[in-house]
Amino acid sequence: MADSTTITRPTEKTKEETRFAPLYNLILLDDDDHSYEYVIYMLMQLFGFKVTKAFKCAIEVDTGGRVILMSGTKEHLELKQEQIHSFGPDPSIPRCAGSMSAIIEAAPSP
Question: What's residue 22's pLDDT?
Fold first, then answer.
């Protein structure tokens, strides 16, 4: 009778690496051609912010020159940026010629 020996190969451990899409920040920039009411209304309409959060953002952009509105993938933020740029002028300020400005920046690594 022949001796049948089974050789079991050791299992190779593979390290699975989860990769996440890089995160970006959408930043609203301050200007003197838009009222608090406009900023609050725009943020409520485009981002679904409650009035208190929209008001805090309006204060921050006014006092600090910029405010981070949201973080996410670049593609999603580009859509939101376009919505800001297309929102139109502030009807309560006659010299206002257009929408506010927003930029996208890479978020710091955790």
Answer: 78
Q: Please, are residues 43 and 69 in contact by the beta-carbon 8 Å criterion? A: yes
Tell me the CA distances in angstroms from 37 to 15, 43, 57, one per residue in order.
52, 10, 12
Contact 58, 49 (CB under 8 A): no
Model pLDDT for residues 23-81, shown as the tens digit of each residue: 999 999 999 899 999 999 999 999 999 999 999 999 999 999 999 999 999 999 999 99
Number of separate domains in the chain: 1
Domain housing 49:
36-106
Helix (H) or strand (E) holding 11: none
Residue 64, in any domain of the structure? yes
The 10 Å Cβ neighbour count of residue 56 is 15
Distance in angstroms between the alpha carbons of the first and the last residue of the chain: 64
pLDDT at 11 over 90: no
Report yes or no on 50 lying in a domain: yes
Helix (H) or strand (E) holding 110: none
